[in-house]
Design goal:
Strand order of the largest sheet: 1-2
CATH class: Mainly Alpha
CATH superfamily: Hypothetical protein af1432
Radius of gyration: 17 Å
Helix content: 55-70%
CATH architecture: Orthogonal Bundle
Number of strands: 2
Structural class: mainly alpha
């Protein structure tokens, strides 16, 4: 199915109040506009660059469909997670339109500065923010250029190094009511990373 705003929001309408769905829709529009001129490194089946907003939307979809999140603030933050470091959108605008919690989560997800990013995420972020970051990495793992074994190996190693402690900390913080969904998501995440093992082994040979 081709994703669009209608299909995206349709996931939420059975679970969220109309006012919350409208907030998510606003975040969707803000993210799409902010990333309007941005493209990803990967290309589509015709060889054309994929617009960056597809990544933002897919991170939010993973959060909803696979990580089991139906919290409007967290979905908004997932949609906007790269806007502060990559676009003209400001923290002030995010806070004005979507509130301080969404703004705080987007700030914590931003690599500003890049140095010490994962250490800050581990030490200062809520489990909800860590979960969004996991969804971000999962989509990046799924869209790796598999013909670039050096880059795949780098991402594989970084994922093991940086995300193992994130999952361990998140597992300690997460409420018991969310644990079954989180445990299922954990298997999906590490299954995706482990699927890269043959490419990594070939690169090392």
């Amino acid at each position: 199915m081709t994703e669009n705003r209608i299909s995206f929001l349709a996931r939420l309408t059975p679970f969220l109040a109309p006012s919350e769905v409208r907030r998510v829709e606003l975040a969707y529009i803000l993210a799409k506009e902010a990333h309007n001129k941005d493209v990803r490194k990967e290309v589509d089946e015709l060889g054309a660059p994929i617009r960056y907003f597809e990544h933002a939307r897919h991170v939010a979809i993973i959060l909803i469909d696979e990580a089991g999140c139906m919290n409007a603030d967290e979905i908004c933050a997932a949609l906007l997670h790269d806007t502060l470091e990559d676009t003209h959108l400001s923290a002030e605008i995010i806070e004005q339109f979507l509130g301080s919690r969404v703004c705080r989560m987007v700030l914590q997800l931003s690599k500003l500065p890049k140095e010490g990013y994962y250490e800050r995420l581990l030490a200062r972020s809520s489990w909800q923010v860590m979960r969004i970051k996991m969804c971000d990495r999962l989509h990046n793992l799924r869209t790796l250029p598999l013909d670039d074994s050096a880059f795949v190996t780098k991402q594989f190693s970084e994922t093991r190094r940086e995300f193992t402690p994130l999952f361990e900390r998140c597992s300690r913080l997460i409420p018991e009511s969310c644990r079954p969904t989180f445990d299922a998501f954990t298997k999906i995440f590490w299954g995706q990373n482990d699927s890269l093992t043959p490419i990594v082994a070939q690169h090392a040979a």
